[in-house]
Amino acid sequence: MADPKGFLTTPRRLPPRRPVDERVRDWNEVQAPGALLPIINAQADRCMDCGIPFCHEGCPLGNLIPEWNDLVSRDDWLRASERLHATNNFPEFTGRLCPAPCESACVLAINQPAVTIKNVEVAIADRAWESGYVTPKPPERLSGRTVAVIGSGPAGLAAAQQLTRAGHTVAVYERDDRVGGLLRYGIPEFKMEKRRLDRRLGQMRAEGTKFRPGVNVGTDLDAAELRARYDALVIAVGAHSWRELPVPGRELAGIHQAMEYLPMANRVREGDYARPPITAEGKHVVIIGGGDTGADCLGTVLRQGAASVTQLDIHPRPGDERADGEPWPTYPKIYRMSAAHEEAMELAASPEADVDARVFSATTVRFEGTAPDAQRPHGGVRALRLIGARADGRPGPDAERVLRADLVLLALGFRGPERDSGLFDQLGLDLDERGTVARDASFATGADGVFVAGDAGRGQSLIVWAIAEGRSAAAAVDRYLAGSTTLPAPVGPADRPMTA
């Protein structure tokens, strides 16, 4: 390490975000442009280069974190970029979207604030693009083998890039009209501007990967026919089967799933709409769900100009410190504040605002609506009733509370891959007890030459796990096609995050 006392002399420092009143008026990323570089060398210097770097265990990609921290502290950005890209295909994505379990596992975090690993990562990635270090890496020779990848989220893209670089001819099939999966239509622009995705897709095209958007395999194209045309098939369709809220009044108009709402906001940014078909503008909004998707809805609602917004979380408010049952180096459930929550809280402090950023221990009892009419045969939502929730999620003894609601967004997570596409029946695939695609230790399904990567086989998870699975599945496919492989396989299908 460059400075053996860096963790003692330098405090943890995060880059500033743009002022709230500025950023809620646009869709640009919330981080202040250029704010990282003046501080990042000293932050990288805080890395202790531990004998056993547990940050490696926190990150399923196996990122060489102490190595690139040391290189950044010495201003060696080229070699830092090489170390970073050795284990991560898309560090500019993870550096913005991952909740950084590596930082929870940082040895320094035992009794001090962790190294700002995520910020160092994104600084390297951005500097690499700006300096021209990121270039296409086409294979030296082609294998003559072909692979189809179904789904263009992070798992599918990682598998495709690895297999292309190994010399196979790869085509990625995506049911949406543009490539990127949830990176394109699920992640709001203020968290990651889509120019970063387009730039990486350009690199992949230059390497030889082919993209086939607008093709819904299982519906538009028979999956068995697709399998017959290629030597191997990788299913990376994600876990888009959302959880429902079966309470009275659910049929009322104005109640939508988060993944019905968020893509429309992103499509405005793509130029498809002047105004989204579902908008929070001028409405009283309630978001049900306290996770990352709920926070994405919150930030989007604020930018669309809602009259009021309340986010409900069924869980109790987490503590500010690790609980005894969540010791280091596990990823703890503590009180965290996203940029969207920061925006909501600051706006709530102004006297003219009507914003209640987060309500914990709240469970929805029922929705109330207006009378039916020609446009809304079931009526439209106008309020919801909630009650305090016990620690196990059951309703508590408190009195009911009524919230006004013209728009309700359900952000309750996902159960697994969608089952009605025809994809699984056409290939003869089995689902396991969790509702995900059954696979063996080599990511292979019961159908010959068909492999599964990402949330479709793992269930809802983090972007780093999706990329790691894509890399590992690519290694399994390469071995299936060539008999052996030199591609890295950072995780196995049964691997899970560290728990106590």
Automatic annotation (TrEMBL):
Superkingdom as given in the UniProt entry: Bacteria
Keywords: Amino-acid biosynthesis, Glutamate biosynthesis, Oxidoreductase
Domain 4Fe-4S ferredoxin-type: 36-69
Pathway involvement of the protein, from the record: Amino-acid biosynthesis
Entries under InterPro entries matching the protein: 4Fe4S_Fe-S-bd, DPD_II, FAD/NAD-bd_sf, FAD/NAD-binding_dom, Glut_synth_ssu1, Glutamate_Synthase, Helical_ferredxn
Keyword hit for Oxidoreductase: yes
Record's keyword annotation contains Amino-acid biosynthesis: yes
Pfam families tied to this protein: Fer4_20 (PF14691), Pyr_redox_2 (PF07992)
Listed name of the protein: Glutamate synthase subunit beta
Lineage: Bacteria, Bacillati, Actinomycetota, Actinomycetes, Kitasatosporales
